Amino acid sequence: MPRWLSVLLSQRTASRASTSRDLTREGQVVVPEFGGGDLMRRRILTMLAAAMFVAGACGGTAAPSASAPASAGAPSESAAGSPSPSASAGIDLAGSTYKAEPATTTGGTVVMAEWQSVTTMNPYYASANADIEASAPSLEALVDTAQDIKYIPALASEVPTPDNGGAVVNGDNMDVTWKLKPGIKWSDGQPITCADLEATWK
Question: What pTM was estimated for this model as a whole?
Answer without folding.
Answer: 0.45
